[in-house]
Amino acid sequence: MMRLWPRHVRSRMTLWYVLVLGFLLLAYAGGASLYLFYSLRPAKSALDTARIAKIVGHEGEQNGAVYKITVGRADLDVKEMGATINARMGLNTWAAFVGTDEDAAVAGDVAMVESEVTPTLKALRGHGLEVVAIHHHMTNSRPLVIFLHYWGRGPADKLATGFKAALDELGKGNKQ
What confidence tens digit (pLDDT) does each residue in 27-48 have? Predict the structure, then answer.
């Protein structure tokens, strides 16, 4: 049987896929994995959730050690096979924070249209947040919605500023 890739490349690809899948699980868990990591460490101070909400411009919800901010995409009129897709069905952007003000972690998801991908990538990377995956779920939806998963670690206010920068790239000129 002929293999497309040499063995040493296949092993690196396998490692890469395992790492990406691990980060995806982290992002999908809505901070649950981050909670486990941080719950085993002594806390210096709790997250100042009011400060995070002020930086981001949206209030969030506290669930144990995780503070999650979810922002719907009401500016988009998305249809999948004639049915309207809304925030309750996952058309939203979110960030889950855990840790302390000095040493926090964030994982989240950004829902965007094609024209927002590059500016959002630049905003996240420019603030030290790592992009984990870019994909879409709904193949027949119009407009096409692309989801970006990200995570980062550092001071909570820096992470919140990065999330806010990504939010600021959404909805610019969308008349769909």
Answer: 555 555 555 555 545 445 589 9
